[in-house]
Amino acid sequence: MLENAYIGLGSNLDNPLLQVKTAIKELNACKDMSVDAVSNIYKSKPLGTANNQQQADYINAVVRIKTWLSPFDLLDILQVLEKKHHRVREYHWGPRTLDLDILLYSDQVLASEHLTIPHPELTKRDFVLYPLNDINPDLDIPLHGKLADILPTVSKENLIFVEGHVELQDIII
Prior knowledge:
Elements: E1 3-11, H1 16-29, E2 33-38, E3 41-44, E4 58-67, H2 71-84, E5 99-105, E6 110-111, E7 116-117, H3 126-135, E8 140-141, E9 145-146, H4 147-150, E10 160-163
Antiparallel strand pairs: 1-4, 1-5, 2-4, 3-4, 3-10, 6-7, 8-9
């Protein structure tokens, strides 16, 4: 069955804006999925401790895809794309060339050792919630409720608009 999934994209190394735009095109080129919506692109501060704050700001976006893949097969493809972008996992919330997270997969709820859907930090992250709102303001997030009810609980003050709704054909890489 064809499913909707929302993927969060982030980068703060090696030309982050280009990393994110390239990843959007690559997701759309994957055999068993297509990107059908792209959020605005934002800049956000790194998460975590004071040591993490020393890294560069992140470029973030969210895409909605349509896919026949299972959540686990989708995760495998996202991890291959991260490796293609030379993703290195030095430490939790460390700098990265590309981070791809499954935020939502239709209305599924899943908790395993390797994958949790909805993403466990989804409702706390401005750099995910506001891009989700760009794509689908009427979104209902399993276990959490309406996106419109969650948004006011998360400040947008550290989120900086970078670029408007990106159309796939407008992404030049």
